[in-house]
Amino acid sequence: MGCVPLDQASNNLTTPPSEKKLRLDNFQYEENIKTVRLFPLTTSYDEVIQPAVISLGSAGLILEFDQLFGDYQTYYARIIHCNHDWTKSRLNDIEFLAQYNEFPISNYQYSFGTRTSYVHYRWQVPPVKLPGNYVIKVYREGSEADLILTRRFMVYNNQVQFDATVNMSRGIVERDMNQQIEFAINYPNLQVSNPLEDIKIVIRQNKRWDNALWGLKPTSMKTDISRLEYRYFNMENDFPGGNEFRFFDLRSVNTLGQNIGSIDRHENRINAFILKDKPNRNQGYGLVRDINGEYVVGNLESDPPNITSDYVFVSFFLESDAISNPVFVMGALSNWQYGDQNIMGYNSELGGYQTTILLKQGWYNYMYYVPDDVQAYRFEGSYFETENLYEILVYYRALGTLYDQLVGYANIVHNRRN
């Protein structure tokens, strides 16, 4: 968007329905849909950093998002049931929902006292009847093809017991850089005829799907005691540990928060500049408390933060020589995805990578990432000591059924900070 004022650019932020194609992942289909959060229902606003994973029959989930510019629009939501690999299942709506599968999103508030006007929407996700994978699809009234956003969530019904640990990698070179997930599951209450086909395992790190492990097969099957073990020797279950995330505090636009170098305030636009970053790779591991790549919307001057926090053009700069592969600013601020909104360009005059991202006020974690490189963490470094969140997901398809159940969910924090 360059230096075009927000109010002048707003007419170009929507996409015709004919150009939208449904994606069963976390995605916004229009540029004016921002700050999409899906989190467990709770009384603490900080709990938005928790995974969108709940147990069957629990309190449920909350979906929040902002629509920049314009008046309130009528949006509807539908829920899509998916298999373990996030392909659409063959179930009918009535098999996983107790009510008609079309829900108006009618809870909204207008922003207050902000340079950038927006409408903040909030919707409580209705309960589902089956454990498994789901996608929320939000669209404009009158046309399911006029997509606004999609978000994944999972519902589990624990029917397995876990024995899981995070250890150093078995690789000689990798042992100081990687984290190895070793685990076993006991399934005494499941009728598993073929464990290699009936049971599917997925492991993800810090709620990411881009580097999740899929298709792990058991290294030992003890069917007489209903136990599967997943203990590998060739690093099939390794994750690079990465480093603790960089952060900045943008909860105020009137004073400089941590790691904010400067703020420019204009009548219809706010610019913030992060202090110049440098590669961390050769500096060794340093303990920094982070929130594993997440962000929390916040405003130190006004309440409530969800409607008084402004949108700011945040500029990042990484001092570095140019490399052949693209570099991205990564974290929950980009849905853990790579695209035009978070790719960095190289400035040869300044000697580094730079980009600008429109973000709502708050506390943010981020990192510089090279997804197509064997050294994805070339700017951050990778260490076994790094605190990371791991989730183990166990799916089971019973004989004669048409869907995958999420029968096991384990949440493990390696090197937890107390």
Walk me through the structure.
This protein has helices at residues 6-9, 93-96, 195-198, 305-308; strands at 27-28, 33-40, 53-55, 61-68, 75-82, 103-105, 107-110, 118-124, 132-140, 147-156, 161-168, 178-186, 199-205, 213-214, 220-222, 227-230, 238-240, 246-249, 260-265, 270-274, 295-297, 311-319, 328-330, 345-347, 352-360, 362-369, 388-396, 405-414. A hairpin with a 4-residue loop joins β19 and β20 (270-274). It is built from four helices and 28 strands. Strands 1, 3, 5, 6, 9 and 10 form a six-stranded mixed sheet that branches. Strands 11, 12, 15, 16 and 17 form a five-stranded antiparallel sheet that branches. A five-stranded mixed sheet has the order 19-20-22-25-24, with no helix packed on it. 4% of the residues lie in helices and 40% in strands. The model is unreliable at 1-5 and 7-12 (pLDDT under 50). The two termini are 42 Å apart. The protein is mainly β. It has three domains: 14-156, Immunoglobulin-like (Sandwich); 161-241 and 385-414, Sandwich (Immunoglobulin-like); 246-369, no CATH class. It is globular, with a radius of gyration of 22 Å.
